[in-house]
Design a protein that fits this description.
The termini are far apart. This protein has four helices and six strands; from the N terminus they run βααβββββαα. Strand 3 and strand 4 (about 70) form a beta hairpin. The mean pLDDT is about 85. It has one domain. With about 140 residues, it is of the alpha+beta class. A four-stranded mixed beta sheet has the order 1-2-6-5, covered by helices on one side. Strands 3-4 form a two-stranded antiparallel ribbon. The structure holds zinc ion. Zinc ion (ZN) binds next to helix 3 and helix 4.
Amino acid sequence: MLTAAAAPPPFCLGCYGSPASDELARALAARVADLKARGGVCEAYATVLEGSLATGRIVVRPFMWRIGTRLASAQATSTGEIDVAREIDPLNIGVRSLEDVLHSVEHEAAHIAFAIPSGQEWTETLVNERVGACRGRSQRVGAVP
Ligand SMILES: [Zn+2]
């Protein structure tokens, strides 16, 4: 289905009815509902997530991309734009699980919700702790560095 020669274009979650977009948008909406039910910190970043999803500001790129010397799987702006990678890279095709993608998007939403800048070890730890606390015991998630 996916060939290395023809990379799929980035798409906006929920902006049009592609099956890939719909699957992710549905999964994300379910995460928003779960986070809101938990309240507090979880609800705070769920609100950001919901707003970004509803206004078409979550963009799924086909692969990870470079920011300076670093390979990024997601990034966000304070205005609510979230970019996230679906796969790892076109040559070494590594598919990220749906859970990996959701986790990345939640991570970025937490950066936005709590105005925590990215790129430093302690700020990343802070975001990972908050998001980790909001992902219940029953949720299986990928390893977070
Ligand atoms: Zn981060």
